[in-house]
Amino acid sequence: MKYHVKKIALASEGKRRMEWADREMPVLRAIRNRFSKERPLKGLRISACLHVTTETANLMITLKAGGANVVLCASNPLSTQDDVAAALVKHHGIPVFAIKGEDNKTYYRHLEAAIKARPEITMDDGADVVSLLHSKFKMYLDGVKGGTEETTTGVVRLRAMENDGTLAYPIISINDADTKHMFDNRYGTGQSTVDGITRATNILFAGKTVVVV
Question: Cα separation of 23 and 114, whole Å?
Fold first, then answer.
């Protein structure tokens, strides 16, 4: 199995953190239990370009439980958790191509590694895999059945491709789903805002009066 992570010895810590995150993901856990019995994705090749975090890791494990052959690369080198990348490789046998802080050349080499797995389904966050498939790796397009796109930036790029008549396969815009707006854009952003203020100012909220305008 080919992979490229920072240090495989980080896997034990990554495994612990993934298990911790899994405790807060009951819906995905229920799907994984069902998938492990029904195997609806048996033999399906999936290449995912997403944030390599504990949450994404549990999604990848779920897809594999469903029978898919999964390859993961990073959509944002700055968000990559090296211990998680190592744990997916060592404990779950999932090829991962991601190193926190990787340079631009390495980033695109990792994208290419995911594409060379000849995906039937792509999972993108920013449409970099889709763009590369439609430019440098057009020879693989015939084998792609469909894909998903996570974020607004990627959806804008894909809609431009669709308007130009160059988008070669159907892609589901996850960004347009009501649950995405509810849990990510609304509540997720709210959580991130509070966290950002805390980290930037180093203030303790206990005992404070907070006014939101």
Answer: 29
pTM metric for this prediction: 0.87
- Which amino acid type is present at position 108? Y
Residue 109 to residue 13: CA distance in whole angstroms: 26
Cβ(84)–Cβ(5) under 8 Å?
no
Whether 123 contacts 44, CB under 8 Å: no
The tokens describing 50, both together, are 């997403």
**What amino acid occupies position 70?**
V
Under DSSP, the state recorded for 78 is: T
Q: Residue 125 — φ and ψ, nearest 5°?
A: -140, 80
User: Residues 120-149, buried b or exposed e (16+ Cβ, 10 A)?
Assistant: bbbbbbbbbbbbbbbeeeeebeeebeebbb
**Would you say 148 and 124 are in contact if contact means Cβ atoms under 8 Å apart?**
yes
Please name the residue that has the structure tokens 């009951």.
26
Reading the block at residue 125, the tokens are: 């966050």
Is 11:87 a contact under the CB 8 Å cutoff? yes
Phi, psi of 83 (to 5 degrees): -70, -35
Residue ranges of alpha helices (H) inside 136-212 are 152-164, 178-179, 189-201
- The one-letter amino acid code at 113 reads A
Please say if the pLDDT value at position 186 is more than 80.
Answer: no
The backbone torsions φ and ψ at residue 79, rounded to the nearest 5 degrees and listed phi first, read: -100, -5
Q: What would the pLDDT profile of 26-74 be if each residue is shown by its tens digit?
A: 999 999 999 999 999 999 999 999 999 999 999 999 999 999 999 999 9
Q: Is the pLDDT of residue 184 over 80?
A: no
